[in-house]
Request: fold
Amino acid sequence: MTEFVKPSVEYFELWPLLVVFGVACLGVVVEAFAPRGARYVAQVVLSLGGLVAALVGVVLVARDVQTYDDGAARGVLAIGGTIAIDGPSLFIWGLVLALAIGGVLLFAERHLDGGVSAFAGQASAVPGTDAETAAIAANREHTEVYPLMMFAVFGMMLFPAANDLLTMFVGLEVLSLPLYLLSGLARRRRLLSQEAALKYFLLGAFSSGFFLYGAALIYGYAGSMDFAAINEAVRNDVGSSSLLLIGTGLLSVGLLFKVGAVPFQAWTPDVYQGAPTPVTAFMAAGTKVAAFGAIMRLFYVALGADRWSWQPMLWIIAVLSMFVGAALAITQSDIKRLLAYSSVAHTGFILTGVLGLQATDQLALGEISSVQAVLFYLTTYGFATIGAFAVVSLVRDSGGETTAIDRWAGLGKESPVVAAVFAFFLLAMAGIPLTSGFVGKLAVFSVALAAGAWPVVVAAVIASIVAAFLYIRVIKVMYFDEPVGDGPRVAYPSVLTATTIAVGAAVTLALGVLPGPVLDLAAVAGEFIR
Amino acid sequence: MTEYVVLSAILFTIGCVGVLTRRNALVVFMCVELMLNACNLAFVAFARQHGNLDGQIAAFFVMVVAAAEVVIGLAIIMTIFRTRRSASVDDASLLKY
Reply:
């Protein structure tokens, strides 16, 4: 037994993580002690302030961080090597924080539904009872959603930065648990929302069980949960390779569930549809960014030497995700389910970038690495997704949001601006030139080609064409179909939602026209440290 | 050591099959907990085999996480039970296609 050594805590580098966690805890205190009327403003200000402070911290740390261990990559191993604060971590932290600011703005929106937020007045009140009527009459709302969201953001930052399997598991759970609760808190259509929470929870807990057993087997193989030690063990081929193979498979189940890759996509449409739209927007963008960060770190840092055994698996899953996602999206009649299946297809495209892993010295000069391509794609996907779901929350009828696609007919006449912005997000997801989606797809396809995965790239190009059809179908419905009945109504949002949509659209356009700065930023982020 | 790992694999499989076949959300959830406990057994067995403490520490972390998961899970299952008067996972079937 080795002697216990007190780990050093790198407070400066951990500042973004600590401030988000601190604000989440403070939010709980506010919930306990502040009077009901003051909580809304207090929570929104606290969350936004915390996120901005963390974002500033990320920028400062990124400017300051030194090269690690004489290698090319820059970064610091914090708290006894359990958290790796390197370029990709910092890039993902910045991205998650930016998306979370958008999320808070959407959560705080009160203009769309007559002065109340999208969350249940009192989640414990059974729908259709006197208790619920009283809660609605008193204009109650759950301000607990802000601390819950901050805990989820903390998990999303811990998950991709974790440098051992145990920290990664804790990050996975801290990210997931608040999201299970948030999915069940919709003000309208409570039954759908509760059902979404139940399905998300049971399937999520099931998949994290797989992740954990995989972690136990890899620990059994390598004798340590540290990624550097696992990498060492894989290189030297110690222990039984069946433990390693089964462990890798089980870990992948847990991670691929979180990104919604086929065959683990079943929860995606149900949860995206049932959850309150602001939660869907935040979750769809943030979870995918965080989970892909974790996937890359696990596969590249810990299991990079064993890539001949996991790359074929990712080939199959990437191709399946693209085709199943695109094909099932075509058959959907609900816009949130359609966007959910389209996110499954995007998972396939991002995996195309993940499997383009090559050793750094194999890269030709000026060629982008797979980490860089995936980080860029995640940026484009995150902003387009949060913007698209924010637009979905604007189209309403008397029963709340109207998400049936045929009810969107005639939106182009009703509100040309909203229809145009939504069409723009859809074109970005389809990957039309001059939008960010095009550059993102180009980046992941080119790294996969460079790594010799041309069958996947051919499949991805075909899947992009199939997917383009479904986005264009929605655009056709909005502009060229005759409205059903009195047609859709567009609610006027406050500056909060408007800002989120405007920033999403601006980033999507800017990354399509001028992708250079963000690609450079991803290049500066460099590689993972171990 | 192999015996304990095999036992944990058996427990994990029982939990896994239970999740897939049982219809009551509470029983499904109990089966998930069984899977987590199977992981704990594997962690502790491997810790003994490798002679370091990492696995035992992991088991403590897993217990804490499982406790948090119980709180969240029971809250969700209870809300849906109060609304539907049923905890069957088959009844909750509004979201499809």
